[in-house]
Amino acid sequence: MPSTRMLHPHGRQCLMFTSVNTFKNQRTGPRRILLPWLLLGIFMIISASATATNTPIAPTATYTDTHGQTVSTATLKGHASMVWLLSTWCRSCSAGLSSLNAHVDQLRASGLHVVILRTYQNGGVTGPDIASFVAQNAPALMKANVSLGEATQGLERVYNPRHYPDIYYLIDANGRIQTVDTAPSITLNKILDFAKAHAGESRP
C-alpha cells in the first residue's frame, strides 16, 4: 500500500511565511552589505578631516637677525617658508647650502621664504658666523628671499630640542608644519616639491 503524505494543517501558512521571509532577506541583503562600506567611508572622511586639523602649528619663537634685531617666527605666517637650523661646522649643512644655491632660481620663482639660523651657540662648537658661512657656500642664495640669524635658546628649545646640527621645517602659509627633515643636499627634491606646490601662496 502506497504511503500517503499528510499535510500539516498550517503547512500552507508556514510555506507562505518562509517565502515572505526569504523575499525580505533578499531585499535587505544588499543593504546589509552596503552598510559596512558606508560606515567605512564616513570613518575615512572623519579621519582625513582630523588629520588635516591636527597638522601641528609651527611654534612661535624669536631669533636674532644679522643686524642684531629680534625677529619673531610669527612674521612667517602668510608665507610658505623653510626654517633651517644649522651649525657652521657641519659638513651636511655646507653641502645643503650648495644644493640650494644651485636651485636658487626655482626657489626665488616659487616665493618660498627661507630662514637660515645658526643653532644656539653653534651647538657648543666654534665656527664661522651665519652670514660668512652662507656667503662662502651659497653666494647666489643671498639674492633669493632669505633671512639669516642666530637661534635663541627659546627657539632652539621648541624647534630643535635634541640639538641636531642640521634640521629644517617646511611650513605652509597658514603656519602649519608640513615636513620636518634634515640634510637638504639629500632631501632637496622634497624642498623643491614643497616650494612648487606652494608657489604664489604667500600673502602680503
From TrEMBL:
Sample GO molecular function, one term: antioxidant activity
Annotated ranges, domain Alkyl hydroperoxide reductase subunit C/ Thiol specific antioxidant: 58-119
Domain of life: Bacteria
InterPro entries: AhpC/TSA, Thioredoxin-like_sf
Pfam annotation, one family: AhpC-TSA
Protein name: Alkyl hydroperoxide reductase subunit C/ Thiol specific antioxidant domain-containing protein
Organism encoding this protein: Metallibacterium scheffleri
